[in-house]
Request: fold
Amino acid sequence: MPKFKIANIIALLLINFLFISEISIAQKLIKPPIMRPEWTKDYAPFRIAGNLYYVGTYDLASYLITTPKGDILINTGLPGSETMIRQHVAKLGFKFSNIKILLATHAHYDHVGAMAAIKKMTGAKLEINEKDAPVLADGGNSDYAFGGKGSTFPPVKADMLLSEHDTVKMGGMQIAVLHHPGHTKGACSFLFTVNDGHKSYRVMIANMPSVLDETKLSGMPTYPDVAKDYAKTFAAMKKVQFDLFLASHASQFDLQKKHQPGDVYHPEAFIDRKGYDAMLNDLHTKYLKKLNGK
Reply:
């Protein structure tokens, strides 16, 4: 049996063990380290471009990609967000039960908090980067920055482990998985093309590499190479080519400045390479200052 298959089997067995061991504490979630009002504030869902839709909150971005064979949901917000996301999907005219694949930019409670609930409600297959899968399985308790105190979201087991340059396929859609570690070990961005019948757009859902206050770039106990991973991510993200810029947080791509509820369909509003580069450069500057102890 090929080595990579053996490694994946071992990883899935470990995740299964972690998932089972954490079920008992799923009902006793600890208080998240950070909470903000805009993370739960409602925001009207809308069509971004082609078969890509926004179904998240005012700041926690969730994306629905529709296809003839089933839909894909990227990110689920905080625990309890499943009700709002379900309402948003229905308001757009789609069936919540049509969601067949669940993806996440990274395994923090504010982006995967409702993953377990939505997986149970829809029966969708959950796919996550292999390095974030253990964090999903224990509800965030093994996260290198926030972990060690208990689960901040209901544990959920991945159905498929993703790696760098994998492609998620569904109903003609091909989503490239770009491993951009640092913020978490398995943080990822997604790159894909949508078409609205008139024009095609290359879309980047970026996991912007912000450095948490809790992160020590000299090395974390369970992530000694965190600084090196951040450096690789900054270098890689500067080279990615795309048309539309989106991200894990709405504030990271200035959603409210580009779209207000009731606005007409306007994909070009999200063409913002300048904004992407500016944010990436700002985060890189902050990373270098922290790395150098300033």
Observations:
- The chain is about 30% helix and 20% strand.
